[in-house]
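# step 3/5: fold
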Amino acid sequence: QVQLVESGGGLVQAGGSLRLSCAASGGTFSYYAVGWFRQAPGKEREFVASISWSGGTTYYSDSVRGRFTISRDNAKNTVYLQMNSLKPDETGVYYCAVRTGVGYTARAAGYANWGQGTQVSVSS
């Protein structure tokens, strides 16, 4: 059973950058595609980005494409999310999870083994 732990969140000014990490243990992490999601207070969890098991294929939501970069290092069992030009409305808890099915999906129901999340706060 893969367990995920997110880290790297914090407080940043608008226009700033953060790099989130999603570290895995307890399973064969390199077999899985991984997604990043975020959830603002009072809102549903929304898809941010995903990456295939090999790292060769990535997907982004329209709102972050060109500013965020997802990557992975399977030797370190870690997936990263580099976030640049952050905006105040991107404040929330950021989660990573493994893809449980085949192919791309932006639906949270298509992922499992969620981490506890890491808080990102962007001030204006």
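# step 4/5: annotate
The chain has a mean pLDDT of 96.
# step 5/5: archive (pending)
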